[in-house]
Design a protein that fits this description.
The chain is built from two helices and no strands. By secondary structure, it is an all-alpha fold. It has a domain of 35 residues. 0% of the residues are buried.
């Protein structure tokens, strides 16, 4: 019985609940330290303002070239 439980504990299916990287994963894993939480927050803030900037540049470019 012990052998059955120990082999099932260490199989790949038992690690599904853990936060590990997956193929074609988007985004970060859950933060384990406060430093990583800061990195994730910094990334989120940079992406928010970057998307607004790219959207603004797209609108300006589209409005400039839509008259021709």
């Amino acid at each position: 019985m012990f052998l059955f439980l120990s082999t099932n504990f260490f199989t790949a299916s038992s690690f599904v609940c853990l936060d590990a990287a997956e193929p074609w994963q988007f985004g970060f894993q859950s933060a384990a330290t406060p430093i990583m939480e800061g990195i994730i927050n910094f990334h989120n803030h940079i992406m928010f303002f970057s998307n607004w900037r790219w959207g603004f540049c797209f609108l300006v470019t589209f409005s400039l070239f839509s008259f021709f």
